[in-house]
Amino acid sequence: QWQLVESGGGLVQAGGSLRLSCAASGFTFNDYTILWFRQAPGKEREGVSCMNSDGDITNYADSVKDRFIISRDNAKNTVYLQMNNLNPEDTAVYYCAAELSYFSDITCGSLSDNGMDYWGKGTLVAVSS
Q1: What string of DSSP letters covers 6-29?
Q2: Please, which pLDDT band fits residue 101 given cuts at 50, 70 and 90?
Q3: pLDDT tens profile 2-39
Q4: How many Å apart are CA 51 and CA 34, to the nearest integer?
């Protein structure tokens, strides 16, 4: 049974930091590109960041560039999203998703949620002003 489980969300003041984790099981994690998405209340889901299976392709949404850092530990089947200098506009439910890495450059380049093979259930990040 496959699983993607996000953790690390919570309430933080503006300017603070959080590190989200996405733990995978039940599939060959090393073969998958992992993306982070978020959905704020009343808004559409948006791609936040992406890292391919080897870790040599990454991408970030413009809104989080230079503040968020994605990383992965294939030995632990886990992807991380370090979020720094958070602001209230970052408030959202954050999801991780996995796609088999055939076209990771395209997937990461677009940050599109089309074609994801697995999804987590999300973790809430709330940033107070």
Answers
A1: EE--EEEETT--EEEEEEEESS-G
A2: confident
A3: 999 999 999 999 999 999 999 999 999 999 999 999 99
A4: 6
Reported confidence tier of residue 105, pLDDT bands at 50, 70, 90: confident
Query: What distances in angstroms separate CA 54 from CA 65, 73, 77, one per listed residue?
Result: 21, 10, 12
CA distances 72 to 42, 91, 95, Å, are 30, 23, 15
| Per-residue pLDDT at 104 | 84
- 3-state helix, strand, coil split of the chain in percent (to 5) is 10, 50, 40
Cβ(19)–Cβ(8) under 8 Å? yes
- Spatial separation of the C-alpha atoms in residues 100 and 85, rounded to whole Å: 31
Residue type, 7: S
Please tell me whether residue 37 adopts helix, strand or coil conformation. strand
